[in-house]
Amino acid sequence: MEVRFKPSFIRAYKGLDPQLQEEVKEKIALFRDGKNHIQLRVHRLKGSLAGRYSFSVNYRYRIVFMYQGKDTAILLAIGDHDVYT
After folding, report:
1. Residue 23's CB: how many other CB atoms inside 10 A?
2. Which residues lie closer than 8 Å to 53 by C-beta, 6 or more apart?
3. CA 1 centroid distance within chain
4. What average pLDDT score do residues 27-49 get?
5. Radius of gyration for the alpha carbons in the chain, expressed in angstroms and rounded
6. Domain range for residue 23?
7. What does the alpha-carbon distance between residue 23 and residue 76 come to, in Å, rounded to a whole number?
8. Contacting residues for 57 by C-beta, under 8 A, at least 6 apart
9. CA 75 – CA 1 distance, rounded (Å)
10. In this structure, is residue 69 part of a structural domain?
């Protein structure tokens, strides 16, 4: 799967601790292979974020994304549960 990044995602990523940045890179690499989506807990969001999805980086951090076509995902935001608001 091709993964693209919104500028807002890149800015938030650069603000993370370097150790967390490495963990994010690993999770994005896993995300590229659809077989790992269960492990990452990929799920559809509801409410004001309807049409978007999320997956876990760790217990605290999540990545919000949307699909663009069958084989492309755009990462929109990263953060703790406040990323959902």
Report:
1. 14
2. 42, 43, 44, 45, 64, 65, 66, 67
3. 13
4. 92
5. 12
6. 2-79
7. 17
8. 20, 23, 24, 27, 63, 78
9. 12
10. yes
> What 3-state class would DSSP assign to 2?
strand
Two tokens at 51?
């049409």
Read out DSSP for 13-80?
HHTS-HHHHHHHHHHHHHHTSGGGTTTTT-EE--GGGTT-EEEESSSS-EEEEEE-SSSEEEEEEEES
Would the pLDDT of 21 be above 90?
Answer: yes
Q: Which among 45, 9, 44, 8 is positioned nearest to 24, based on CA atoms?
A: 9
Predicted confidence (pLDDT) per residue in 51-80, tens digit: 999 999 999 999 999 999 889 999 999 998
**Residue 49 is part of a domain; what is its CATH number?**
3.30.2310.20
